[in-house]
Predict the structure.
Amino acid sequence: MVKLMSATGASRSNVRTWVRHGGAVAKLGRPTFFSPEEEDIIATYMVSWTKGGDLLTCDLASVLLRQYIADVGRVEEADRMFGDGGWPGRTFFNLFMGRHPQLHRVRPVALEGVRAEAATPEAVAKFFAAFRLLCREFGITRASQVWNTDESMMKAEELLEGAGSAVVTDDPSARAEYVIPSVQNGAEAASLVATVCADGSRLPRFVVVAGSGGRLPFAGIVQDDRYKSRKPLAGYLDEGGVP
Amino acid sequence: MKGGYLDEGAEVHRREKPGFDGPLWEVFASFAARHMAKLCPREWKVLLMDGCKVYASPVGLRVLKASKVVVLMFSSHLSHILQALDKDPFLKTKSDARSGMRALLPTIPRHAKFNLVHLMGVIRRAAFTGLSSVNVINGFQKTGTWPIDPSVVNADRLVKGKGTANASRNVDLEQLALRLGPEARRDMREPVISFGSISTRGRAIEATNDAMLEAMDELAAVVAEKQAAKDKYQAAKSARAAESIAQAAREEVAAEQRRSNPAVVARKESLRRRAARARAAAGPVASYVCAPGAVVEVEPRRKRQRQ
């Protein structure tokens, strides 16, 4: 005992428990519903399920496990363990994920159906082949020769609604509201056109705002002496322009 | 002052719906060509962009080509994988816009409206941080567009959800790109017309290529012809509408002239006098006289409910 204690640095109590179990680590807490072998098979099955591109939610996994429980005739035991209905719930999955660190929770991102259909390895590979060919023919060898342009819509209403931040209150059931200003006609949205280079540089911003007429828009500014002046909106976008 | 601002940088344009249309895209193309030509005037540059129908303007593309910019359009619906701007730069810009708005809100006086100057301020701050060098370089790296590296794209993501046969495929994009090289070379310069525009379905196209520009010219000519026919039809329709309005006005004038004709006026006066004489001869009569043979219908009385 003393020899083992000095060799491992463990306490006498730990060494005693270890000797009593023949060297195996003693499991604490109540036993799991599924045996370790069953759990390993379930984890492997979960991984193979997602390999085909199907999403496995906890709800779906719960349904599949309930079917398995019924097949092996452990319904009453499951009722006792998981409550009414015998469905493995959130707690079961939290503990299950803890026991199987190779599994991770990932929040899926929405993808349009046409995009999912169009994204084939052939289409992507053909783009890269075409890109390489162009680079060879036009002598594109440096990052400063590669550019990308696209537009992104900035909607004032969406930005205003998403601008709320958490507030402190002594009443957890209190409903906190913040007041947003109404949006002036013509300031509802703007399209930001960005043109960027692979070396990290970019072209000046090009913005399209809502409004009739093709003239470059101005902002009316009331000065201290109540004199109204007009400033081009583009000036508000320049780094050295009006703040 | 305006010139000072615009020469050195940003441009703001107005359109009924914020976003590009044909003429505005041509303005942007000249803006981009002007700025890109300044950067490395002797070298060709490649501009990657999505194959939106509006961008397929031969005028805008020729302006870019004249500034030594070759345009490569992505295959349709692939920009979420291949577009550098859709990765870090725009994601960060949007998130910075929200935090910028959070900072701006307390500075807007009560009862004041959120105006264009506020929106410009939010865009300026968001673009400053979102389109930073680090984010831009990360965007290109994450899409494998510079340095060119197809292996960066997650091939598993491309085969999943497309049946079991695809799911079991072991795809090496690098090898596949090599194998599909000849096909890609043919596709990028051979215009395929679909639904009145050059198709980018499953193929990247070199939009500034002569064959592509010629095809775009032909399509633009067809569109212009259709527009001319439409305008002609519309003009004829407007002329017909104007003619019918003028005809109605002429008939109204003629009716008015007839009504004010002395003979008609005299006849009307004579009839009125005769009626007045007849009324005077008949003496006072009740307002409503029941004509013989007429049936007077009264509203049926509702039956009373027995208790």
In short: Strands of chain A lie at 146-155, 189-197, 206-210, 218-222, 228-232. Residues 35-109 of chain A form one domain.
